[in-house]
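Researcher: Please translate sequence to C-alpha cells.
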Amino acid sequence: MSMSSHPIAPAHVQAIAPYQAGKPIEELAREFGLDPARIIKLASNENPLGCSERVREALREAVGDLHGRYPDANGFDLKAVIAARHEVPAQWVTLGNGSNDLLELASLAFLDDGTSAVYAQHAFVVYRLATQARGARHVMVPARDYGHDLEAMAEAIVDDTRLVFIANPNNPTGTHNPADRIEAFLERVRVRHGERVVVLLDEAYDDYLDPAERFDSAQWVRRYPNLIVTRTLSKAYGLAALRVGYALAQTDVTDLLNRVRQPFNVNALAQLAARVALADQDFLRRTYEINRAGREQLSRAFTKLGLEFVPSHANFVLVRVGDAARVNRALLERGVIVRSVDGDGLPEHLRVSVGLPEENDRFVQALTEILVA
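Model: Translation complete:
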C-alpha cells in the first residue's frame, strides 16, 4: 500500500523534509573519485582548529578508563561549571545533545497541533522542522535585510502562539540584533502576553561576536521567566563530534524541558570534554581571532569579485553567486564543500564557513576559476 493513500503516520510528520547535513568529505571523495586529503569542507560551520589540546588530552585519558556505566543523567559537574560561568542556579541549566536537541525539547514542551510558533524567514531550519514535527502552525515572518524583523515578529504573536524562536547571530545569514533590540522585544512580549509565550534565544554563534557586541543574556533569564537561552559547544569550542549544548531558563521552564528530555542525552565523554573546553579560554580567544581574520579574508575576496554578501557576525559568510546550484557543483568537482541554502529560500546564495587561511585561499581560488570561466 502507498504511504499517501494509507498513511501510517500523521500528515504533519509525513510533510517533514528531513534535515540535510553538510556533505561529508568521505562521501564527496567517493562520488567524484577525489583524494580525501585534498578535500576541504567549509559547509557546516565547524571550528577548523578542531577542539583544544586540553580537551584531546582529557579524552585520551578518559577513554582508557571507560567503565561501561551510564553517564550522570543530570550532568551535575557540567551543570555546576555552566552555572558558575553564568552566575545562575544549577537548577536553571538543561543539558542537550547539541543545541539542536534543546530546540526540539522546547517544541516538545510547548507546542502541539493547537498552537503556533513564530520564527523569521531565512532563520535556522530546525525551527521549522521542530514546529512541523509537533503539528503546530507556522508563523514565518519576512526577513528584514536578511535578518530578524523583531518588530514584525512581536506583531505576529497571536492567541495560540506558545513559542518564538530567535537566532542571534542568525544562521544561515550571519545577521545580528544588538542587545537593546532583543531586550525591547522581550519587554514587549512580557507586557502584552505575560508568561504565556516562551521566547527561545538561540546563541549558537555568540562566541564569534566582537567583544563590544556581546551581552550576558543570563541577565535577561533572571528578569524574564518565559525566556530560554541556548548555547552550543559544537562551534567555537570544536565539540561538534561529541554533541553537547545547554539551555538557561528559570526553574519552571527548566522543569518542563527536563520532563521531555531523553535520559542520558549527553554522554560521559561529551560532559567531560565540555567541562575542559569551557575552562580553556585561551583556545576560545585563538578561535575568535582566526575566525575574525578569515571572515575578513573572505569578505575582501567577495568584494574583489564584485559579489554581494551579507556582513557576518558568525563563523560563515552568506554570498550571492547567481546560479548557486551550478557554482556549488563546480566547487564540489574541485574538492571544495560549501553549503547550499536553497532550502532556506536563498537559491542564489551559498553559505561558506570560515576555514584556516589556506582553506579560505583554496575556496577563493576555486570560486574565481568558476566565475571567470
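Researcher: Any highlights?
Model: The mean pLDDT is 94.
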